[in-house]
Give the backbone structure.
Amino acid sequence: MLFNQDEEARIADAIRAAERGTSGEIRLYVEDYCQRDHPAERAQELFQLFGMYNTQNRNAVLIYLAEKSRQFALWGDAGIHEKVGNQFWEDEKKLLREYLQRDEAAEGVSKVILMVGDRLRQYFPNDEKTDINELPDEIIYG
């Protein structure tokens, strides 16, 4: 397993913090090996499998990690991708890659989650009192 219990708790806390004040949703999926030729293909498949395209504003983001194949991808729904463009995803991937290369996956994932949350709040602000958590915050292991 990539994360210990403390790291899992930190990542779940980062997801909750990132989702505060936005209608956006963030999920993390971790498996040993990528099941496709390219990790973005797998991320898109998982995004569909978990119904992440069903959020009200089409603003969910999936962070995908394949630990043993040393691959990852970020997949954002149409609503968020239209707002942030390609460069945003490249900046996040660069940051995550740096942390993964230093074997600091939990720290890198947490930082990327918070970056995504900042951008989601910018484009999809929401009143915390009326916000509905549309997707679970726990890590999904495959």
Remarks:
- Residues 78-101 form the longest helix (24 residues).
- Residues 5-141 form a domain with the Diaminopimelate Epimerase; Chain A, domain 1 fold (CATH 3.10.310.50).
- The beta strands are 25-31, 60-66, 71-76, 140-141.
